[in-house]
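Dear colleagues,

I hope this message finds you well. In preparation for our joint manuscript, I am sending the Insulin-like growth factor 2 receptor (Nothobranchius pienaari) sequence together with its predicted structure, so that both groups work from identical material. I would be grateful if you could confirm receipt.
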Amino acid sequence: KGKDHAVKSEKYTYHLSVCDALQGDVCTHKDSKSVASCQTDGNSHKIAGLTTQILDFVGDQIILNYTGGETCHKVYNRSTVISFSCSPDKHPGKPVFIKETSDCIYTFDWPTALACIQ
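The corresponding structure tokens are as follows:
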């Protein structure tokens, strides 16, 4: 929390924050105080999800789901799903881009010791 994380895919750079709004100057339009996920490509940017502190537990993973992003393909709203998985040697670890779905959901895996049950 309180730190932005940049993750590159083949085409875009994603800026993520955990349970808080992005601190940097990306996605600085449309109520940027609540933007937690942003997709950038050069000078353009798209809001990919708004902050929440609600976590879901699915199996052995902690899931953070940011919804309410900008419209995509004129039908969908962009959203971001970050799956935190236990990795005892990574503290805090870093997010890895997995894929973008056809309905504009950006998925990331984040192996981290912080997701391990003590």
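For the figure legend, we might mention the following. The radius of gyration is 14 Å. Residues 35 and 118 are 31 Å apart (CA to CA).

With kind regards,
E.M.
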